[in-house]
Design goal:
heterodimer; A: 119 residues; mainly beta; 7-stranded mixed β-sheet; 1 helix; globular; B: 117 residues; 6-stranded mixed β-sheet; 4-stranded antiparallel β-sheet; 12 strands
Chain lengths: 119, 117
């Protein structure tokens, strides 16, 4: 089945540690995204990538890093510089957009999420 | 800057009744897309329905329909014949005008829907 997988489902981190969240997709999508969700809030964009070896900062990139070495994979590292990392992290992917709004190219499909807790 | 506003933090609806979840947006773009996603307690985000700014007809998808009023900048989600499984958070989102080939979405703060017997 095509889809997006994230691992682990739950992650616990001690203060000062870096942790990496995995995101893999087999939808052959070009673009991938990382979002953070805090309780009772909407989603905020951390980083996104349009193609392999390319990525851009979103609205809240400080304290996070990403890589895109393969089309299928977009791991997110939460560094010790992120002061309040406890949150729910969602990965998404979409086709390459042409510019004009379109259901097929603009719809983002999400993974099941990783819940990160700092101890 | 684009903005999505969902003014209903929580809604209750009886099973088999219809419910409308409100969403207003603010944009200066001419070409934009509006989305509704459902987030059950498990956390995954499930795509429900899409409306393009140039679409002449309101989008429908099974029991979901989108009441799109472009002049008022509103894109309300209507769920007909509510079911217990509809209990979840619902997010309205809008696609920003892309600077590249990625489709960035701006999300509202969500509405928690509770379906009762």
């Amino acid at each position: 089945d095509g889809g997006i997988t994230q691992s682990p489902k739950y992650l616990f981190r001690k203060e000062g540690q870096n942790v990496t969240l995995s995101c893999e997709q087999n939808l052959n999508h070009d673009a991938m995204y990382w979002y953070r969700q805090d309780p009772g809030q909407g989603l905020r964009l951390i980083y996104y990538s349009q193609i392999v070896n390319d990525f851009q900062k979103g609205d809240i990139a400080e304290g996070y890093s990403v890589s895109r070495e393969k089309k299928e994979s977009f791991p997110l590292t939460v560094t010790s510089a992120q002061k309040n990392p406890t949150a729910f992290y969602l990965c998404a992917s979409s086709l390459k957009t042409s510019g004009r709004a379109s259901l097929s190219t603009d719809t983002q499909y999400f993974g099941p999420g990783t819940r990160l807790t700092v101890l | 800057a684009q903005k999505i506003t969902q003014t209903q933090p929580g809604m209750f609806v009886q099973e088999k009744e219809a419910v409308t979840l409100d969403c207003t947006y603010d944009t200066s773009d001419q070409s934009y897309g509006l989305f509704w996603y459902k987030q059950p307690s498990s956390g995954e985000m499930i795509f429900l329905i899409y409306q393009g700014s140039y679409d002449e007809q309101n989008a429908t998808e099974g029991r979901y329909s989108l009441n799109f009023q472009k002049a008022r900048k509103s894109a309300n989600l209507v769920i007909s014949a509510s079911q217990l499984g509809d209990s979840a958070m619902y997010f309205c989102a809008m696609r920003e005008l892309p600077t590249g080939t990625a489709s960035k979405l701006t999300f509202g703060t969500g509405t928690r829907l509770q379906v009762t017997l």
